[in-house]
Amino acid sequence: MVVNGETPEDIMLCCTYSVDDISDEEFFDAITDLEAYCQRAAAQHIEDTQENMFIEFCANDATKTEMQKLIDDTDHEAHIVAAIMRVLEKNTYKMVNVTTIIDGKELTFKTEASSLNRDPITTYSDYSIAAADRAAFRELYGRHNDYRPKDIVKITYGKAVIYEKGAEANP
User: Fold this and answer.
1) pLDDT reported for residue 163
2) Which of 61, 74, 92, 148 shows its CA 20 to 30 Å from the CA of 40?
3) Partners of 108 in the β-ladder
4) Checking DSSP bridges between strand 95-102 and strand 105-112, what pairing results, if any?
5) CA 33 to chain centre
6) What is the DSSP code (8-state) at residue 76?
């Protein structure tokens, strides 16, 4: 949610209620005194579902709290992913050059821009790296390694720098 620019205020709690299998008597009550019927139905619904409603309220509050913590933690990778996605979504790049530093080893390689224009959850796969560069990537970093957003120090298109680590605040 943070990667997509959402805030805790965007999180809404929705309690649903539907009228199923209403009896003829309940239907008549609803027609003759809708407000009284609604109050009785609401009271019954709350009584029947109050435990689940309480759990939903608590989960909603916890989600908002954790989301705010994540927003406040500017070192979290979600902010890097969001910054990378913002610069890539503005253009129709097919391939970009990515410079990574992993364990003090630096490598620049071509990769599909579309692979960076999404939330990787944990890592970006080396399968989106151009074949010739993928061999160099695997030789330097290991065959079964992928790269994390925090490993990316620069993304360029041609000679233009479109992302640089540390400049996330104003991509």
Assistant:
1) 94
2) 61
3) 99
4) antiparallel
5) 46
6) S
Compute φ and ψ for 107, nearest 5 degrees. -150, 140
> Does residue 155 sit in helix, strand or coil?
strand
pTM: 0.69
Tokens of 105: 């080893």
How far apart CA 60 and CA 8 sit, in angstroms, is: 10
SS3 of residue 154 by DSSP: strand
132, 121 Cβ separation under 8 angstroms: no
Distance from C-alpha of 5 to C-alpha of 95, rounded to nearest angstrom? 25
Query: In this structure, how many other beta carbons lie within 10 angstroms of the beta carbon of residue 120?
Result: 17
87 token code pair = 């610069």
Digit-coded pLDDT (tens) for 29-83: 889 999 999 999 899 999 999 999 999 999 999 999 999 999 999 888 889 999 9
User: How many other CB atoms sit within 10 Å of the CB of residue 153?
Assistant: 15
Q: What residue spans define the domains of the chain?
A: 8-72, 79-164
Q: What is the pLDDT of residues 118-169, one digit of tens each?
A: 887 889 999 999 999 999 999 999 988 899 999 999 999 999 999 999 875 4
150 close to 80: Cβ distance less than 8 angstroms:
yes
